[in-house]
């Protein structure tokens, strides 16, 4: 390993240590989703304080794979009879995304005074990497887009569990039932590791969105729905993966001064407030119309990350499969619709 690679590894291990300490603190005060939120908060503070920590997309992948396997294990034959309940929420999703995007893009143009390209891709309810790449190709400020999306996800993941906690108490989820015994451990190692490795391979080959999460999730879901196995991931393994996930999110602010961070958070807070207001309104309306739990739809429609919102659903004993399906649909719709919308906006400006 090169000196630079060794230094990166040490910084990542330091981030995990800081994240684990933050997670333990949040767990001790019974905060919702403690290992993600505590790790995320602690690493964000450490990043701005200038501590030698670092985490990247590459270091996030093993943790995302574990979470993908966990989420896949929540799928099963019981979901099929519920599929008809998703028709209306899924059909309404494009209109929800269009409403949320229009309001946020307008906010970044009028309030943040971003240029049209930066405002457009900063306001899209899509993934960070995809929006940064698309924006950069069209002359936008990719750093601003990345920071805004990172801060938006940070705020949503941090705020939403506390808001939902007011109405729903967390319960033990069957997908993370502790596993004991030598035979169970060997079986878990075979199935869990096998789903993770095969899923990573398939996800990379097929270039799936968020392949490091979706690939293992798809393989694990197929194993559980087919009845080949019904393994469960131990709670300690999921907690470790959540610490890594939170640390990666907190380390997005490495290199920022406190003043820069507060400015980004203030701008992101405005768009987050808009997105959450739209999410609550649509979830309540569509939930009433379709007869689906509005809290579940709030997580399914929310502008947070797929893994994070699914983890919240899992902690509340709601159906994470519903959240996964809606977020994957959201990602695909934004990937297809965002370039088309920007091109259309350009043609309209040219015509004017």
From TrEMBL:
<dbReference type="InterPro" id="IPR007820">
    <property type="entry name" value="AbrB_fam"/>
</dbReference>
<feature type="transmembrane region" description="Helical">
    <location>
        <begin position="210"/>
        <end position="229"/>
    </location>
</feature>
<feature type="transmembrane region" description="Helical">
    <location>
        <begin position="86"/>
        <end position="108"/>
    </location>
</feature>
<dbReference type="Pfam" id="PF05145">
    <property type="entry name" value="AbrB"/>
</dbReference>
<dbReference type="GO" id="GO:0010468">
    <property type="term" value="P:regulation of gene expression"/>
</dbReference>
<keyword id="KW-0812">Transmembrane</keyword>
<dbReference type="GO" id="GO:0016020">
    <property type="term" value="C:membrane"/>
</dbReference>
<feature type="transmembrane region" description="Helical">
    <location>
        <begin position="12"/>
        <end position="29"/>
    </location>
</feature>
<feature type="transmembrane region" description="Helical">
    <location>
        <begin position="184"/>
        <end position="203"/>
    </location>
</feature>
<feature type="transmembrane region" description="Helical">
    <location>
        <begin position="235"/>
        <end position="254"/>
    </location>
</feature>
<feature type="transmembrane region" description="Helical">
    <location>
        <begin position="62"/>
        <end position="80"/>
    </location>
</feature>
<protein>
    <submittedName>
        <fullName>AbrB family transcriptional regulator</fullName>
    </submittedName>
</protein>
<feature type="transmembrane region" description="Helical">
    <location>
        <begin position="328"/>
        <end position="346"/>
    </location>
</feature>
<dbReference type="InterPro" id="IPR017516">
    <property type="entry name" value="AbrB_dup"/>
</dbReference>
<keyword id="KW-1133">Transmembrane helix</keyword>
<feature type="transmembrane region" description="Helical">
    <location>
        <begin position="35"/>
        <end position="55"/>
    </location>
</feature>
<feature type="transmembrane region" description="Helical">
    <location>
        <begin position="295"/>
        <end position="316"/>
    </location>
</feature>
<feature type="transmembrane region" description="Helical">
    <location>
        <begin position="144"/>
        <end position="164"/>
    </location>
</feature>
<feature type="transmembrane region" description="Helical">
    <location>
        <begin position="261"/>
        <end position="283"/>
    </location>
</feature>
<keyword id="KW-0472">Membrane</keyword>
């Amino acid at each position: 390993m090169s000196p630079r690679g060794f230094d990166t590894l040490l910084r990542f291990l330091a981030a995990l240590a800081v994240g684990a300490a933050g997670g333990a603190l949040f767990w001790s005060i019974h905060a919702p989703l403690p290992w993600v939120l505590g790790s995320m908060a602690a690493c964000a503070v450490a990043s701005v304080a200038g501590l030698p920590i670092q985490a990247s997309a590459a270091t996030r992948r093993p943790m995302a794979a574990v979470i993908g396997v966990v989420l896949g294990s929540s799928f099963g034959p019981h979901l099929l009879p519920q599929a008809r309940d998703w028709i209306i929420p899924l059909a309404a999703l494009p209109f929800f995304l269009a409403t949320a995007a229009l309001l946020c893009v307008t906010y970044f143009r009028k309030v943040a005074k971003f240029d049209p390209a930066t405002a457009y891709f900063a306001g899209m309810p899509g993934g960070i990497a995809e929006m940064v790449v698309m924006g950069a190709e069209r002359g936008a400020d990719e750093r601003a887009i990345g920071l805004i999306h990172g801060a938006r996800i940070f705020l949503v993941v941090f705020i939403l569990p506390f808001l939902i906690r007011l109405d729903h108490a967390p319960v033990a989820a069957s997908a993370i039932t502790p596993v004991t015994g030598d035979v169970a451990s060997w079986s878990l190692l075979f199935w869990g590791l096998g789903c993770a490795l095969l899923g990573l391979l398939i996800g990379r080959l097929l270039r799936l969105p968020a392949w490091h999460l979706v690939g293992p999730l798809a393989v694990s879901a197929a194993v559980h729905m087919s009845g080949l196995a019904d393994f469960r991931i131990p709670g300690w393994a999921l907690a470790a993966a959540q610490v890594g996930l939170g640390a990666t999110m907190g380390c997005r602010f490495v290199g920022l001064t406190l003043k820069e961070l507060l400015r980004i958070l203030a701008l992101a807070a405005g768009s987050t407030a808009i997105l959450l207001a739209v999410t609550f309104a649509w979830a309540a309306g569509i939930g009433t119309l379709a007869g689906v739990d509005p809290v579940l739809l709030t997580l399914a429609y929310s502008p947070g990350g797929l893994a994070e919102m699914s983890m919240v659903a899992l902690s509340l004993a709601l159906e994470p499969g519903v959240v996964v399906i809606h977020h994957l649909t959201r990602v695909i719709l934004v990937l297809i619709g965002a370039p088309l919308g920007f091109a259309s906006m350009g043609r309209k400006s040219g015509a004017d």
